[in-house]
Amino acid sequence: MAARNRMPPWHENVRLSNGRDVLIRPIRPEDAVPLRAGFALLQPDEVRMRFLHPMKELGAEQAERLTRPNTRREFALVAAEPLPPGEALVGAVARIVVDDDGRAGEFAILVSHYINGMGLGRHLMRRLVRWAKGRKLERIYGDVLESNLPMQALAASLDFHREPGHSPGLVRMVLDLPKPKPRTPPPLVA
Q1: pLDDT digits 0-9 by tens, 91-110
Q2: Separation between Cα atoms, residue 105 and residue 184, nearest integer Å
Q3: In the structure, what pLDDT confidence band is assigned to residue 1 with cuts at 50, 70 and 90?
Q4: Nearest CA among 33, 84, 42 for reference residue 63
């Protein structure tokens, strides 16, 4: 029997429309240094769209926090070069954090301008939705700048609806997830 080339859970090789290969995988602690280095390559608008305010750098403490998610309530994926963690440049990060009540989760996605416009944001969002469904969340949401029309369009194309934001200049994109089907016990055989 031939050996299968199986990847660990949540790992996937993806070829972008420009021919570049990226590895989508869960974020790892080793990604902290490349994440900080890659942050310096982002344009100010990219940072503002994701963090909702300007930032000059991603601090070491913040990078450590991002790369060590609490697996009980957080899930984070990166799209990186197909190299070992710690060596691979990270081009995109997608994460979801479950609210304290365990019923909803807040998403955030950042795709670098080097690889945006190639369907990667859509792919990552679908992966976040899949994870949220597996956790039986009722909804996922993200606060988006009113001026971030590409993110709003992406979310709307995946059936998110728009709600008023909790702060001026923000809108909330919300996806109500289908309730899990109740399990019915098998019929009793007489």
Answers
A1: 889 999 999 999 999 999 98
A2: 28
A3: very low
A4: 33
Span 9-49, pLDDT tens digits: 899 998 888 888 899 999 999 988 888 777 766 666 666 56
d(CA 2, CA 122): 34
Q: Are 54 and 44 in contact (CB under 8 A)?
A: yes
* Residue reference for tokens 């029997």: 1
List own/partner pairs for 54-58 with CB under 8 A and 24 or more apart: none
* Packing angle of the helix pair 149-157, 120-134 (nearest 10 deg): 50
Closest Cα to residue 97, out of 148, 54, 135? Answer: 135
Residue 167 in 3-state DSSP? coil
- Alpha carbons within 13 angstroms on the beta-carbon side of residue 181 total 3
